[in-house]
Amino acid sequence: MSIRHIIIILCFFLTGCFPHYLVSDVEFNARNHMELAAAKENSSNFQEAIQEYAIISAKYPDTRYCKPSVWRAALLNLHPNNPEINYKAAQDWLQIYLKLPLSPEEKEIAVLYNALILQINVTLDEKNKLLTNTERQNKNMAILTQKLKQAQIKAAQARGELKKLSSYEAELSILKDKLKKMKEIDVQLHKTRKGSNNKSFEPD
User: Fold this and answer.
1) pTM here?
2) Using alpha carbons only, how large is the chain's radius of gyration in Å?
3) Whole-number Cα distances in Å, 16 to 105, 136, 138, 204
4) DSSP the chain
5) Does residue 18 register a pLDDT over 50?
6) How far apart are CA 105 and CA 121, in angstroms?
7) CB neighbours of 106 closer than 8 A, spacing ≥ 6?
8) Residue 202: left if φ>0, alpha if ψ -120 to 50, beta else—which one?
9) What are phi and psi of 58, to 5 degrees?
10) What span, in angstroms and rounded, lies between the C-alpha atoms of 100 and 61?
């Protein structure tokens, strides 16, 4: 076999196997992340599992692991045991999922999930508005209650002042009566003195 034939065979070998090796390597790495994500999911490390699924979606979009990783990321954000449920993140992942090549059944399920999340978000918005209104009303009620207490205190103070004033008026009335009597006594004394003086000037 000539050197030329050997070179041709090597070229065919390289061009035929090297791309296959690259694809296999990418698939292998994606599978490793998928297995790691599944292990974290099984141990209830939901946020770490979501991060692993996100790596697959970002770095290995052309592998067969991309679509299931996006789907799992969406579902884990809705998982009832996830302490950090995130409806917005789940909806974002579903939007990515719906842009992938899906079967009619897969698309139908994804659309159903998306509709349910939209309904949940509407309900949560209504709940938050109700809570905000309730907090505002409670705050206004607290303000009104405080103003009512202040008004009651002022009313009590006014009643106390009125009571003092009534007492002063009673004392003033007594003083006026005493002054009136003293004036009457003075008038009587003045008349008595005047009568005595007139008698002293009469001839015997």
Assistant:
1) 0.55
2) 50
3) 37, 71, 75, 173
4) --HHHHHHHHHHHHHHHHHHHHHHHHHHHHHHHHHHHHHHHHTT-HHHHHHHHHHHHHH-TTSTTHHHHHHHHHHHTT-TT-TT--HHHHHHHHHHHHTS---HHHHHHHHHHHHHHHHHHHHHHHHHHHHHHHHHHHHHHHHHHHHHHHHHHHHHHHHHHHHHHHHHHHHHHHHHHHHHHHHHHHHHHHHHHHHHHHHHTS--
5) no
6) 24
7) none
8) beta
9) -80, -40
10) 10
Asked if 90 and 117 touch (Cβ cutoff 8 Å), the reply is yes
Which amino acid, one-letter code, is at 167?
Answer: S
Amino acid of residue 82: N
Under a CB-based contact definition with an 8 Å cutoff, are residues 53 and 70 in contact?
yes
Higher-scoring residue by pLDDT: 203, 109: 109
Pull the structure tokens for residue 146. Answer: 């405080």
- 32-41, 55-64, 68-77, 143-152: least confidently modelled range: 143-152
Q: Are 113 and 74 within 8 A, CB to CB?
A: yes
CA end-to-end distance (rounded Å), the chain? 192
Residues in the chain: 204
Distance CA(75)–CA(113), nearest Å, equals 9
Tokens of 179: 């002054």
Which amino acid does the sequence have at 177? Answer: D
